[in-house]
Design goal:
Layout lengths: L8 H14 L2 H5 L4 H4 L19 H12 L4 H7 L4 H9 L1 H11 L4 H8 L1 H19 L6 H19 L12 H10 L33 E5 L5 H20 L6 E5 L2 E5 L6 H16 L4 H14 L3 E3 L12 E6 L3 E7 L9 E7 L4 E12 L2 E9 L12 E10 L4 E7 L33 E4 H6 L18 H11 L6 E10 L4 E3 L5 E4 L2 H17 L4 H4 L3 E7 L16 H9 L6 H5 L4 E5 L2 E2 L21 E4 L10 H13 L4 E4 L11 H9 L3 E5 L1 E2 L7 E4 L1 H22 L4
Parallel strand pairs: 4-5, 7-16, 7-17, 17-21, 18-22, 19-20
Antiparallel strand pairs: 1-3, 2-3, 5-6, 6-16, 8-9, 9-12, 10-11, 10-13, 14-15, 15-23, 19-21
Length: 729
């Protein structure tokens, strides 16, 4: 079984080898030879299918007509190589067989046959008999198979009719096929253009246990219940594979095994859409090296989409069908859209995520010197994998409070060049470092800024600052870099909050361009997708009909527990909701049970080198959908009710879901989900996109998750009110 949509180089080679086995020329050639097909697998250890001759509808009709014309039953049986008892059984079933054949071609086709002549009419009659026989064998018809068979029948009939049909021509064009499909009332025929979007009659989607949305996945059988259908499936396979590649590439294949190829066939997630959404996310991440930059980027997105900025300090006059946002601390943002049919006391459709990620932050007094190096004192923020910060090209980004003549200004800064580095120790100086590497977070994570010698040579005016200036608490080299970026004087710097960040940009990677190699996927991925989903949900007319408030809350400080004025543990959410609910004294209380919180934070994809860290039946994989996170001890806020609701929402959005629980012998992380459900009493579910290397300086996700996340959140905003009304308990 293959896990991802697009495979690694080695896996791709295995896939090609697999395809070659499944499309063995001798198997394809055997499709029209039942007795040969029956021997497939002989000598290979497989059960040999018992030889059994299939009697076609055409043969049955011929037997009936010969007996009716006066031939003896034993003679007819001998001519066709059948037992007399078999012929007797066919005759007993005469009425049903003739009626069956008669119904194969509707009466309206006689008008066309008169215009086209006897040859075309006879060809289509025989083709219908063949199709009926194939259907009885449970062989799925395709456009290519029908066209090829039609040409074969036409050629045989033309030879039979001789000079009378010398001028007749037939090419089995697409136009003829679609007209014939209507005349013959054919159903479930897989056309060439839609080969990857239709489902065979005998396909089995049950093999994808992780997906709750079988309608968005299609399986293409490589074997059937008997030798005939196995060979027919082998015949179809080359065309199927070609159409899969043509219709979006192997990007949509998420599994293949002996039973078939399994594809995500939702029209919403073509390769172009997936790549476009992924590139937009990475562009957002590259512009967001700190939570302050992330919120600034989100504000720009919202303003461009017609959202109006509100201030907590001012009075709000909200209007139905209008869109707004408010920020706190410039690191938390709440965007919302008022439904056109919203009434006081109605619910909130609420998506929550966070803007912060584990990082190193510059200390208030960062000036350090050691072993002739200028160093910058930092403190760890959150639970990062700190050894991944070694030997990286680092920079600084964040915000600076600048004193202007009459006011204090909030400025963003991002030094776009490598200025810091935390070097590793050479293996020659610590021989056991590959066996054990224990970093002291105070002593071993201090980055180098410059050497004392070069700093002395480049000494600037900022080195003469007195202690009353905040800038004097930091190396003059660092202050000069900030002043040059902001075009201010050192004396104007009142304070700052600066994060260290990797200079290497986020990129799409992998041999098949399917992965996201990026910093801060946890949790800028969901912050971006939630905001984009809200924006897209308001582009159509659905907001006009919505009875709810659509909300995207993106908080700071989740990585350190959310216990801050701008965190999910603050009163911010409740205060904003109460201001929106203004009216009746109980409006807020009435709205809570009608509301729903979709808590979105990244999830752990199964690691191929550490698969034992996942519970064996709960192993989320990339490209297989968003992850529904469940924990019996309520580290995640998901319940059976909230899970059922999000499963329905995901089904409507054509986004597959995967289930995840942590092993019983491991600690479980948590999210803002339990925090907000506790503070507000709002029904909550925890979801996230699968990723590897969580909390590393460079994380790894998949391109598919971006489009799926946007679609899931957009679908949630649009469909939650109707899903809520459908609940009958």
């Amino acid at each position: 079984m293959m896990d991802p949509v697009s495979m690694s180089t080695t896996s791709a080679e295995n896939f090609v080898s697999f395809c070659e086995r499944k499309v063995d020329p001798c198997i394809i050639a055997a499709v029209d030879n039942v007795e040969s097909v029956a021997n497939i697998g002989a000598g290979s250890g497989r059960r040999v299918v018992k030889k059994r001759r299939a009697i076609t509808m055409e043969t049955k009709v011929d037997i009936i007509r010969k007996v009716e014309s006066g031939d003896k039953m034993t003679k007819v049986a001998r001519v066709h190589g059948l037992n007399p008892s078999t012929v007797c059984t066919i005759l007993k079933d005469k009425a049903r067989i003739l009626n069956y054949v008669k119904r194969s071609v509707p009466m309206r086709s006689t008008i066309i046959s008169k215009k086209r002549g006897r040859l075309h009419d006879d060809m289509e009659n025989l083709l219908c008999v063949w199709l009926q026989d194939e259907n009885q064998r449970r062989v799925p018809p395709t456009q290519i198979m029908i066209q090829e068979k039609a040409i074969s029948i036409f050629t045989d009939l033309k030879k039979k009719y001789g000079d009378d049909a010398a001028g007749e021509k037939f090419s089995a064009s697409h136009g003829w096929f679609h007209k014939f499909k209507t005349r013959a009332n054919l159903q479930n025929v897989i056309s060439n253009k839609n080969n990857t979007k239709k489902q065979y009659n005998n396909c089995n989607n049950g093999n994808n246990n992780n997906s709750n949305n079988s309608n968005s996945n299609t399986s293409y059988p490589l074997s059937g219940g008997d030798a005939v259908s196995s060979a027919a499936a082998a015949h179809v396979f080359p065309y199927t594979l070609a159409e899969i590649a043509k219709d979006g590439g192997l990007h949509n294949v998420f599994k293949f095994d002996d039973t078939g190829i399994f594809c995500n066939t939702s029209h919403s997630f073509t390769k172009e859409i997936v790549q476009h959404a992924a590139k937009n996310l990475l562009n957002f991440i590259n512009k967001s090296p700190s939570p302050y930059h992330a919120v600034d980027e989100l504000k720009g997105m919202l303003k461009s989409a017609g959202f109006m900025e509100l201030r907590e300090t001012e009075h709000w006059n909200l209007v139905q069908s209008q869109k707004y946002f408010v920020t706190r601390n410039e690191s938390t943002i709440i965007a919302f859209a008022v439904g056109g049919k919203y009434e006081t006391g109605n619910g909130f459709s609420f998506v929550g995520a966070h803007t912060d990620s584990p990082c190193l932050k510059v200390k208030p007094v960062s000036k350090k010197e050691k072993s002739n190096y200028l160093m910058v004192g930092v403190q760890t923020y959150g639970g990062g994998i700190w050894n991944t910060w070694l030997d990286r090209d680092l920079t600084l980004a964040g915000r600076v409070m600048v004193q202007m003549p009459d006011y204090i200004e909030h400025r963003l800064v991002n030094v776009k060049k490598p200025i810091l580095r935390i070097p590793n120790i050479a293996i020659h100086l610590q021989r056991d470092m590959n066996d054990k590497l224990t970093l002291n977070k105070e002593d071993h994570l201090t980055p180098i800024l410059a050497t004392q010698v070069q700093a002395k040579l480049m000494e600037s005016a900022s080195s003469n600052l007195t202690e009353k200036h905040q800038a004097s608490k930091h190396h003059s080299v660092l202050i000069k870099l900030l002043c040059d970026e902001l075009n201010v004087e050192p004396e104007q710097i009142m304070d700052f909050e600066l994060c260290l960040a990797d200079c290497q940009p986020a990129v799409i990677g992998g041999a098949l361009e399917e992965f996201l190699f990026s910093p801060r996927l946890d949790n800028l991925m969901n912050a971006y997708c939630a905001c984009q989903g809200l924006i897209e949900s308001c582009e159509g007319s659905s907001l006009e009909e919505d009875t709810n408030i659509r909300v995207a809350c993106l908080y700071d400080n989740e990585e350190v527990g959310s216990a801050s004025a701008q965190g999910a543990g603050s009163l911010l959410s409740e205060l904003v909701m109460r201001r929106i609910c203004k009216g009746d004294n109980l409006a807020f209380e009435e709205s809570i049970p009608k509301s729903f919180h979709l808590s979105a934070d990244q999830a752990h994809a199964v690691h191929p080198n550490f698969s034992e860290k996942h519970e064996s039946t709960h192993q989320p994989a990339m490209h297989k959908g968003y992850v529904l996170k469940i924990n019996a001890n309520q580290k995640y806020a998901t319940t059976a009710i909230t899970a059922a609701i999000v499963r329905k929402v995901a089904e409507l959005a054509a986004v597959p879901l995967q289930d995840f629980v942590v092993r019983n012998d491991m600690m479980c992380g948590s999210t803002i989900g339990p925090i907000l459900s506790t503070k507000l009493g709002i029904p909550t579910v925890d979801v996230g996109a699968p990723q590897l290397s969580m909390h590393s300086i460079r994380e790894q996700g998949c391109t598919t998750s971006v489009a799926q996340g946007i679609a899931l959140f957009k679908g949630f905003f649009e469909n939650y009110p109707s899903v809520f009304r459908s609940i009958k308990f």
